[in-house]
Specification:
Layout (H helix, E strand, L loop, with lengths): L1 H27 L6 H26 L7 H17 L5 H24 L6 H19 L5 E2 L10 H4 L1 E2 L3 E2 H19 L1 H11 L1 H6 L4 H27 L1 E2 L8 H11 L11 H20 L4 H42 L1
Antiparallel strand pairs: 1-4, 2-3
Length: 336
Amino acid sequence: MKNKWNGLANYIGTFAALIILCAALSIASPNFLDKTNLMSILKQTSFNALLSTGMLLTLITAGIDLSVGATATFGACVAGAMVRLGVHNPIVLFFSVLAVSGTIGLINGLLLTRLHLPHPFVSTLGMKNVLWGAALIITASQMISFSNTGAEGIMLLGSATILGGFPISFLVVLFIYILMHILLTRTALGRSIYCAGGNMEATRLSGIHAENVLTFCYIMSGLMAGFAGIVSIGRSGICNGANAIQPYDTDAIAACIIGGASFMGGKGTMVGTMLGALIIAVLRNGFTLLSVPSAWQNLVLGLVIIGAVLLDVTRERMQRNKRQKEAGQEKGGEKA
């Protein structure tokens, strides 16, 4: 019960921060509350929220996936290269992107669990650079347009709207988040994911195949990045291999940490991550409306991440001290 109340308190704090941010931007810019702008924020949220889904799973296991942005870009470039070769069926393109991105996630997982690289930071950072180069190679370092090619169907997920402008991509994100919330909170696999992040050795001793759990998380991270890549095609209508080096993974990490995840593992929820993704999208949108230079944007987002991590470390230290104090009181009571 105490954990539930603590979780609710975190949600309230994050939600309050989102409301305060929206209120401040609505005062600073009269265009912020415009319907078109609000729908644009939801579209921006969709891309980062999908990346954050996979990132959250890896963070819960005390890992990280720095290749999510590059995986999304590479998946989009695979679709672009296929269109250039004459493949125009959107269904074939859709599943090809997911197959490629899922395979990348599998490789990241195997590098960690089977080849025993010391930390996923190393392998996924290396994978990010591999995918950056591969994306430039398969596109010949050129942007590829999907418009007027006969493959416009692949753009629907990121561009289609309903009910007067509500993006379908955000509805898909909500559906995925509900499924992932159920997975993490109502299934044995979800409990195993949290267990692996909390104490890997205890997870193994309890009979859970920790390597398979970790591999699953990285496969899901790749698949979610593939979905994000498809959404990016609909948003821009093009693919560009140079985007693989963009700091998309930083935004995903920020969304997860702001939402209550921890680099130390064992923590994080889909609800918190969604709130974090919305905060990042609102920040990005506000920067654009206020014409804030990109250098200042990166500086502010970096400070936001540092602040969120500092808050998490401080909270962990306070909880650890509290547990130690309670344990000391129990021992003192037993001696008495």
